[in-house]
Amino acid sequence: MASIIPRAWKRLRLSKTSGWVCNDCRRTFATSRVQRQQQPPASGQHESQDPKSTHFGFQTVTEELKAGRVANVFSSVASSYDTMNDLMSLGIHRLWKDHFVRSLNPGSRNSVEGQKILDIAGGTGDIAFRMLDHASNINHDNQTSVLVSDINPEMLGEGRKRFATSPYKAAGRVAFLEANAEDLSAINDSSIDLYTVAFGIRNFTYKQKALEEAYRVLKPGGVFACLEFTPQLRNPVMNAIYKRWSFGAIPLIGQVVAADRDSYQYLVESIERFPSQEEFAGMIRKAGFLLPGHGGEEEGMQGAWEDLTMGIAAIHKGVKPA
């Protein structure tokens, strides 16, 4: 990796497109479009204050425009999404997802009906498969089911293809729903045992609204669980290296492997715009959830999440009060 990053970085620095300066490593990162000129917001400014505008990567756009652009990104990368995740994370995303599912221990040994799991932005079915495998093989629960929801039909199409010949599909243990996570009106109040979202919530226009919907659909005692990239590593040196890799190599990989530099440029920028661990934990609590190991508002947020691989990603959880 050490040899790849400088070469990719050198190529990108020769570009005449606009860029932004990383405050940690003081280097200019090239972007693929001239209009991406604004720098990432200061801490605490990730959500737009104008209800009719929001962000798309480093750009400020209208809500309607963002929805279309995000849809185009995931329509473009749907068929190569899992392959690109392997290349972008050097395969580590698979270990994170395995750990995420083990930490939730889906399935129940004592329930006749099993759990009802809602996997939001679940597109390709990667998390759903892991949930069902764990419930069946570890907890010997053949009743737990997963509803895979995604706003993008192409991503759902990849999931449907993956499950088409699986025993879970034949047993009716997996279903698919095209829906916006900010409006889950197709799902009844207090009907879900476990709500999961992995590497998807950073693309939502209004994350707080999605958290409130998660709270609504969960049963009392139900669990909200999120696996997502973080904008900053705790170690400043490693953070600088990580930024060089993210903004230098990943868009280049997208260009070479998927012939789609812009989509992967956006994916990197969307990580930079995501709230910090502290901010996101506060948003989860604001939605009404209890944070595991934490009490009232007077307590700090430290420890309300689990950092993975030096903080490149993190797991957040919340419990709906019984």
3D shape: globular
**Strand-and-helix sequence, N→C?**
HEEEEHHHEHEHHEEHEHHHEE
Low-confidence stretches: 1-50, 55-59
What is the CATH superfamily label? Vaccinia Virus protein VP39
Distance between the termini: 48 Å
State which percent range the strand residues make up. 15-25%
CATH class designation = Alpha Beta
What is the subunit organization of this protein?
Answer: single chain
How would you describe this protein?
The protein has 11 helices and 11 strands. With 322 residues, it is an alpha/beta fold. The strands form 3 sheets. Strands 7-6-5-8-9-11-10 form a 7-stranded mixed sheet, with helices on both faces. The chain is globular. It starts with a helix and ends with a strand. The relative contact order is 0.14.
Notable features of this structure?
40% helix; two-stranded antiparallel ribbon; 11 strands; disordered N terminus; 322 residues; alpha/beta; Rossmann fold
Short description:
This protein is an alpha/beta fold and 322 residues long.
Task: Record the SSE blueprint.
Blueprint: H1 4-13, E1 19-21, E2 28-30, E3 53-56, E4 59-62, H2 63-77, H3 81-89, H4 92-104, E5 116-120, H5 126-137, E6 145-150, H6 153-163, H7 167-170, E7 174-178, E8 192-198, H8 207-217, E9 218-229, H9 236-258, H10 261-272, H11 277-286, E10 305-308, E11 313-319
Parallel strand pairs: 5-6, 5-8, 6-7, 8-9
Antiparallel strand pairs: 1-2, 3-4, 9-11, 10-11
Helix pairs in contact: 1-9, 2-10, 4-5, 9-10
